[in-house]
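Suppose you are handed a protein chain with no further information: no name, no annotation, nothing but its sequence. What can you learn? This example shows the usual starting point.
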Amino acid sequence: MPGILTKLDAAFGRRFGEGATSASRRRSRVARVVACAFVAVSGVALLVPNATPFVRGGSAVSLGLGALGTAVSLGLAVSGVLLYRSDFSTPNVVRIAVWDCLGLVVLGGVLWLHVGARGLAGNALMAGNLLAVSATAHVLIGVHDARRVRAEQLAREREKFAVLSRVLRHNLRNEANVLLGHAGQLEAELDDPELASSARVVHERASVIGGLATKARELVSAVERRGGPPLRTNVAGAVATAVDAVDGERVEADVPDDLWVWADEGYADAITELVENAVEHGGSNVAVTAEADGDWVRVRVSDDGGGIPDHERAVVTGDADIDQLTHGSGLGLWVVRTIAESSGGRLGFDSTEDRTVVTLSHRRARVRE
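A reasonable first move is to predict its three-dimensional structure. Written in structure tokens, the prediction is:
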């Protein structure tokens, strides 16, 4: 049995998985819509026999069974909508719809044989009840089965992620430090200006690689913290930490002292990353502001520089897929996004005529007494 399920997993993934081409993504979207529509429509269709006692009248028992079947059928219909909006992959959504179909076909076939043997009268309510319960039970079985597949996929991804984490945390940074040391020594001792310039370029690139390794370590740490409880954090304190870490003369901060948020422990690091990015790539004036907006607190980091390229924004926000032509040039914004999402926060971008604004939003926490 496990071997058959494994083969089905592979088949569903190949057929309905969202691939790199537009055709495969379109096929995946269509399959998701059809699968969810089937689950919802099956629930709506089963409302007809279950509503029979309310239309024709019946005993208290039949009315009770009709109410039960109607409630289950409505739940099945709603589950189709919820399934579409869930975070299940399309192959797993199709898998759940197949389980739903299996429940209808198997039990429906048995009931059809009984109806044929005994006649139609008096069997509509029984068929509606049993089919609704069977379909819902099989949807639940499908959800459990999809979660099993998802857990196996996550386990494999965690293993790959752990290997990547170890490489980034140790090997890459160590090799960058070796390059930095040798490049610095060559730059200091070479008499040839061109060779010294080349050594300086090597030193600069090694420093960039070392910085990427550091940010990758921060990214890995933020991913590993996902799902943990958020911390109650003072916004003004986090902004002050960020401003102190950069050239404070170029940064204007206007943040009330009484703003608190529920955030990841790397909240101050995320703001620091945004401020450093604005100072390094922005113009002469960087501003950090914060305000409460209902249940949310929004920290805005703005600058008057050239702005974040559109393709960088699209990749980080998920509006564009990562491929060989479309990808980010660094990890800073990925670190910020991951830290924000670790505690239910959001990262947003906006632009005016003369300023670029990056917004970090988190749920508001009550003021500490």
